Amino acid sequence: MEAMGRTEDTDVVVIGGGLAGLVAANRAAELGKRAVVLEKGAADKYICNSRYTYGTFHINFNDVMAGEDKLYATIVACTDGFARQDLAHTVARYGARLMQWLRAEGIELTNLGQYHTNVLSPAWRSGAGFKWDGYAGDVTLQKLEANLKKRGGAILRGTRASALKLAGSGIEIQAAEPEGAVSFTARAVVIADGGFQANMEMVREHISPAPEKLLPRHGGTATGDGLRMAQAIGAAVTGMANFYGHLHSRDAMSNPLLWPRPQADDLAAAGIVVDAQGRRFADEGLGGIYLSNAIARLADPLGTIAIFDSAIWDGPPGRGHVQPPNPLLPEVGGTVHRANSIEELAVLAGLPPQQLKDTVDRYNKAFDAGTLPQLSPPRSGPHKPWPIKAAPFFAVPICSAITNTMGGIVVNGDAAVIDVNGKPIPGLYAAGSTIGGLNGGPTSGYVGGLINATVGLRAGDVIGGFNG
Ligand SMILES: Cc1cc2nc3c(=O)[nH]c(=O)nc-3n(C[C@H](O)[C@H](O)[C@H](O)COP(=O)(O)OP(=O)(O)OC[C@H]3O[C@@H](n4cnc5c(N)ncnc54)[C@H](O)[C@@H]3O)c2cc1C
């Protein structure tokens, strides 16, 4: 790597100014280190998933204050044992600590009930479409940036890191800033660039044969730079095939009012999801995040339809969410077919009528007999199955929306990047959605998005010499 243009030496360079990066930088700065954040977004309110976030800290939809042992067991269970044990312990232990630390930073967390006990404030939870300006993540990033500056740190906007090189007692970071090339040397580097969901080729390689047919439910900024840079100096990666996402009306591909809410997850997980041939292809009982992944893997991710009845539409799956598909989805232009028979519904939805009727009949019969787990594909839990018997019947064409990748750079419980031989790479850390080994496993187990910032807090602790 040639040193070109301006050069700068500092204690810590953080790549990415999302929540994970700003937590790591602030914590290291609090412990006396000079931290410089490189952020490729040039705007004052540069876009990233942390700016867009709804702001609920949770661990697999559990209160982060539920206690380390319970949370650790939850992480292991929801990922079917995929999560690294050391990392799972850190996340379970640091969940409560991160909430305390954020509060001490002056960040307001509100309790909205259920598992939404620690939500970045002000929270926005009504209507359809998108509002982020002046809400949860936006306010939080501004506050953390101000704190970093007060601690002598800096965030360099419009500065995109492109390469790393291990250099004696530190790491060289090559980047481009608006004025040209710039390079840094630092004793520690934290990669926190948010994953690779915005890199079509990487998504095609690891997640879906047709990435252009997934709804980008993200800021468009996570292009896999950190992963590429880390791999170039020997880092291991894991769990690349899974992502965190939701099901939306297929119309959301062209209608921005239909994302990031309302979702169609609860409708799909209560009824069935069929492909263009009218056949089930995945276990709906595993929920919307799992189904989003299953749909993304199909040859045509835009060919699936959720089928359900009026008991589902008018009951908790349709109306229970704070931003419910009934009535929001049709109100803002999402297609909802309804008919008094399954055959008529099939005609409206462009599905083969006899095949759809056979699929629904088989499902209802298994429901009545209590043999849903014996169906092919099986229908299991944790989401409660509903029969599809109460006319009118409904068909909602859906799409798979990708929010952030679950796979990525392998880190241990100290946030240290692990190389392909299983050894930590000296001085190199990673945090946030760029890491792998926490979320994922065979059922796309979702531990959480924001909670990955605990790994940033741990990185800051370790870099600053705090052994908490
Ligand atoms: C609509 C929406 C709602 C959500 N709601 C929730 C929720 O309620 N709860 C939850 O747990 N999760 C939620 N999430 C997910 C959560 O917001 C993310 O998992 C989390 O914010 C990721 O943080 P991060 O710091 O890892 O990445 P990001 O916030 O994406 O930040 C990464 C930053 O790195 C920068 N960057 C990238 N490449 C480079 C480079 N080469 N050089 C310099 N900078 C670079 C990017 O520009 C970006 O600013 C939601 C996401 C969305 C989109």
Outline:
This protein has 468 residues and is an alpha/beta fold. Helix content is 31%, strand content 22%.
Description:
This protein has 468 residues and is α/β, with parallel strands linked by helices. It folds into 2 domains: 6-241 and 406-463, FAD/NAD(P)-binding domain, CATH 3.50.50; 247-401, Succinate dehydrogenase/fumarate reductase flavoprotein, catalytic domain (Flavocytochrome C3, Chain A, domain 1, Alpha-Beta Complex). The chain is built from 15 helices and 19 strands. Strands 1, 2, 5, 6, 7, 8, 17 and 18 form an 8-stranded mixed β-sheet that branches. Strands 9, 11, 12, 13, 14 and 15 form a 6-stranded mixed β-sheet that branches. Strands 10-16-19 form a 3-stranded mixed β-sheet, covered by helices on one side. Helix 3 (68-78) packs across helix 4. The longest helix is centred in the N-terminal third of the chain and has 20 residues, at 85-104. Bound molecules: flavin-adenine dinucleotide.
Blueprint (SSEs and pairs):
Elements: E1 6-15, H1 19-30, E2 35-39, H2 49-52, H3 68-78, H4 85-104, E3 109-110, E4 119-120, H5 136-150, E5 154-157, E6 160-167, E7 170-177, E8 180-191, H6 200-206, E9 215-216, H7 225-232, E10 237-238, E11 243-249, H8 265-270, E12 272-274, H9 288-296, E13 304-309, H10 310-314, H11 316-319, H12 325-331, E14 337-339, H13 342-349, H14 353-369, E15 393-405, E16 408-410, E17 416-418, E18 424-430, E19 435-436, H15 453-463
Parallel strand pairs: 1-2, 1-8, 2-5, 8-18, 9-15, 16-19
Antiparallel strand pairs: 3-4, 6-7, 7-8, 10-16, 11-15, 12-13, 13-15, 14-15, 17-18
Helix pairs in contact: 1-5, 1-15, 3-4, 4-15, 13-14
Flavin-adenine dinucleotide binds at residues 15-21, 38-41, 46, 48-50, 52-56, 160-161, 192-194, 217-219, 221-223, 225, 260, 403-404, 432-433, 448-452.
